[in-house]
Amino acid sequence: MKPIIFSGEMVRAILEGRKTQTRRVIKDSLIEYAVKKTRVCLEVFDSEINQCRNIYPRFKVGDILYVRETWMPYATIESWIADEQLYFYKADCSEKNLRALKRDNAKWRSPYHMPREAARIFLRVTDVRCERLQDITEHDARAEGARGVMRTNTFPSVEEPLIAFWMIWDGLNAKRGYGWDSNPWVFVYEFERCEKDGGDE
Known about the structure:
Layout: E1 2-5, H1 8-15, E2 21-25, E3 34-37, E4 42-46, E5 51-55, E6 64-68, E7 71-73, E8 87-89, H2 95-103, E9 122-132, H3 138-143, H4 160-173, E10 185-194
Parallel strand pairs: 1-6
Antiparallel strand pairs: 2-10, 3-4, 4-5, 6-9, 7-8, 9-10
């Protein structure tokens, strides 16, 4: 079982059944020397070894992933929430609860530090492919959990779900140098929710 991190917005989309795909940037210093792609890998030319090599995805079909998200132990907030849960998740919080937590000086913990036993969402990988970010279709944008937004004169020829995905993507990746305009290579993972042991929910 392997971890995968999602933002709060994307966690909500998974819980609501709107998100069944995720795109992850292929980070490699030789990515600009890509030779060709197959469905499950990207071939690049490596000048150090003077030959081509393949970049493979982190996850493969059949893998079970546990979702890491912003969280905190229940003990941190037991003074004001009546529940028997062991962990609390920021994606579930209303604005009112967020304000109350802030007043109580409760500290959210990074998804990077979330232990597997705190995970509540499990995903089974059903398909993997390699493509450029801007190859995404309107159907895939919806499967990414992107909701349509109003058209504007700035984007007159782009479908609404694609605009929404563009905005979500840049909000998460532009500052890291992988914005929409850079059109990075990505692995596309399709998934379905499952039980911790891999059985269907």
